[in-house]
User: Fold these one by one.
Assistant:
Number 1:
Amino acid sequence: MTRPAAGGGRWVEVSPERLAGWLGGFAERHGETSSTYADDVVTVVAADASVAELHVPFPPLDGDPVTHALRNRRVGVLLVRLGGYAAGVFAGTTLVTSKVGSRQVHGRSAAGGQSQQRFARRRVGQARVALDAAADNAVRVLLPHVESLDAVVTGGERTAVETVLADRRLASLLPLVTSRLIDVPDPRLVVLQSTPALFRAVRIRLVDPENAD
């Protein structure tokens, strides 16, 4: 999938298994390439001035980009949206333990006055219960594995995720949390099972010659 990139260019996402072939195709289309390496970005510049910025998954970069991307990792995943949550541990692409759940959180009311105020208070209370349940779930699923995890990936609604991670019981997870929040729908088991395709993908910013710096 291709998306516009802030600051120019466009984003593509490439699975680790396809990365070597993608880089070969980039060189075939744009000419001989040279690369510069940083902990979190590999910049590939082609003969025609096209640029491919490979944003390294699970930095810092260890080895060449393809080998790094293909490495099997043990990854914790925490997905949270108001009313739904999921946590799991993956060994490579295999989900080895997980638990999902939900708590009802009503939408906004169109009523006014005191009715709206009562509804708003009820909704705040429901949201608090839902996020507490999501934190309890993360404690049960992720904490027993924290010593073996290479990283923790989060997804869903940013504010909800941040609220859950603010739970003191989850402090030991924080150094492992990656910077990217993956975009997922309501956290159900099938959604959790599909996350390796998102968190393993190499995000590449492509800049055409006319837009290159």
Number 2:
Amino acid sequence: MWRNKAESVLTLLALSVAFALFGTMITLNAAYQRAIDDTRMDRLIVACAFDCGVIPLGYREQLTRIPHVTAVGGEMWIAGHEQDERHRITVMLVDQGMRSAWPELPMIAVDWQALDANPSGIFLTRTAAARRNVRVGDTVTVNGGPGATADGTGIYYFTVLGLIPDPAGSGAGSVGPRGDLETIVGNLRYQQNWGRPDEQNIVHIMRVAVDRPEHARAVCREIEARFTNATPALYCVPAREDAEETAEANIINSCLSSCTYC
């Protein structure tokens, strides 16, 4: 060790980094597993099959008529930055169908009533509000870039209606609308009323509730079969399986990034 001090120091540093990354991966894996355990099999995620990005809101009526489907909700995301471009923010806009299609969203009846009465209102998880230092009644702005809004300014204005608990299994993924600590819930009518004309009556995904977990895969197959020749066609996956695939992909990406860094 003393004969080659530089090499010994580098070796010790490499070992330290390796153990640190190993510990990080164990923690990350445990966090993802908690998120997966809290995701239900009887909740389906329906999206465009060929990376078209959006699906017509009118599909909701057809989905509700499929056997074993109990509820359908629409979801759209507005992404941008706050005053500082480094502070990214995503608002998840949902319709009232989500009350039944995704009841695990930590909102109670009075929250849904307030959101329905205030199209420009939002609810933030307590963690998201603390990070942004906002309170009930404050205005949150999202800069989506030039042309993102109907008036051409690209700036969305939201009023904080209240705070909601951090979702179960949160904290396992990246900031965004997929059930993590940064969940910010808004009213889909905001986009329908004030968004660009070409972004009205569309959503990014639909969430579908089925009566029993064992019916999930069969309902997904039925949805894909019914919309095979539609424009756009649909892709369906049980939410639990989607969470497993997302977790696996993120863990692999984390490993590759760590290896690249080393």
Number 3:
Amino acid sequence: MNPEPPPLPGWGQAGAQAGQNPTLAFPAAAGPTPRRRRRGLLIGTAAGVVVIAAIAVAIVIPLTRGDSPATMARQAGRAIGTADAISYAGTFAARPTHLSVTRAGTAEGTYTRLGVPVGRVTIGGTTYLKAPTAFWLEDEQDHLGLAQYLANRWVKAPDDAITMSVASLTPVRLGRVLTRVGPKPDATASTFHGTKVIVLVSDRVSYYITAARPHRLIHVAGISGFDSFSLDVTPLTAATVKPTFATLRADVQALAAAPDPNSFVNVLGDNKIVDCTTLARCGVAGMMRVIYSGRHDFATSPVMVKMTVAFSATKGSKTFTSCSVTVPVPSAATVRPVCEVHGSAWTHWVISQRGEFWTNAVYDVEVNSASAIAALQSRLSQEPGAS
């Protein structure tokens, strides 16, 4: 086991010349949140950038003759900047994480939280999570039913769960950071897993670049918000990126009708019974409005409401039939979904009972219609290396 590394020299310094060292845009957290909930998500979705500094800056040695740190950084930046994607492996907040990020900023990967695996997909600037009940239950402690509903399906990540943008981890962004260093960057010679490197530090991020030619970026480490990360860096080319896109295609297809915890449904009045006078069918109509936790552009981010209605003889008794309907929500205006039951179950109830019945409607807000998924797949297929 490698010993705990000492603090890196110059940790957090801005570099030799102000304005000449663009850095990875790992946004710092806004500070401790007063909310009890979301703690698990805050750690989870940030797992796009991973790894705690529990690796190997073992020996600090003087810089030797050869290429200057600036030359090493620029050569490494040009090399990483041409990759179709980057594979990252390591930890974030001491939790194992694997993540792949394409040139366009599309990402897929997994990390561990509460001892369970959590999946992450980011596409078009939107992040989705997939996790078992235990993960969601920490966030929804008072709502076991909701946690079970979210479990093991892709869920649009709550807005306050996103603490780090994977755009900072694209090949283009890393390449830009390293090729634009100043003439005298903050760099120290060291070793990493037995390989001689220079550790170039800027804005709390350390870039590990091989000292021998060809100079390559092999690791990044630092602090994001209150958590440390440490990531091995592996560039993916046209020959090695295909499995990443294969996984992304399958995951994106599974994003259809993903629940959206950023919103809730405001039901306006009681449900109305519609056309229940025949043996053929019975409908229930509801008036409702979608309310978002923050500002929301329905035109660019359309949502859907799924209305599910259970029919029973009395309140709380066993359901004898049910229906569901999904309607688009084009704006913040009121919508009126109508859910109908029909067929033998309803007919048998009417014939045998001929009495009153009880209905219970549940509303869920979802994203990604069939056409939206097709658009995401088309977007993915146009990325470099996807074909």
Number 4:
Amino acid sequence: MFEDLFSLDGRVALVTGGSRGIGKMIAAGYLAHGVSKVYITSRKAEQCDAAAEELSEHGTCISIPMDLSTLDGCRALTEEISSREEKLDILVNNAGAAWGAEFEDFPESGWDKVMNLNVKSPFFLTQMLHTKLAAAASDARPAKVINISSVDGIKVNPDETYSYHASKSALIHLTRRMAARLVRERIVVTCIAPGPFASDMNRVARDTPDLIAKRTPLGRIGIDEDMAGAAIYLASKAGDFVVGETIAVDGGNAYARLSG
């Protein structure tokens, strides 16, 4: 009854921003749990191709370099996936950007870049891939859309990353609204809010892991298995009844950290 609870055998997945960091952790986890094919995207073609080659040691991983900061990029990715696949079982909207500047100097460019990639693109890419997701969905096995937010969308940190905070909070609420609409088609939408993981996005955790570990209730920063585990859970049968929820994967930073 429970043997295949976390199995992803035979499924096709797309992980945006999958060439590094959290996206790469998720792609690797999916391959380890039986996904038949993982597509990864990245704005930088060389980096995307290299990551796909590395991940292909564990299964079929295909690089589709693409800039998803514009709707043209989202359309081009949709056309490429549609030319290769009749259906898409799992979409992970992970590609994102951040921008930091003091309140008085925060630029419009830093606002638009972050909001476009972190909020606008996940919505429209899901909209464009809706037909492929619906083709994979059934009562027995829903299709899955997993948005990647941040604990900064749940709580405020001291950094002056205004558009990043706003975008990640918006994505959490957008997840709920999309879930309410798409669940009727057996497309289940959920969200992960990562905390401190070593990545180019979170250079503080990457460069000073011991310092960040001391501030984290669990006493360490996140590792690949932490992120992969959450993404596997939500994508698999184990997560079929979880709809519209955001799971903080953060060692307790959002909900179990005392002030100071």
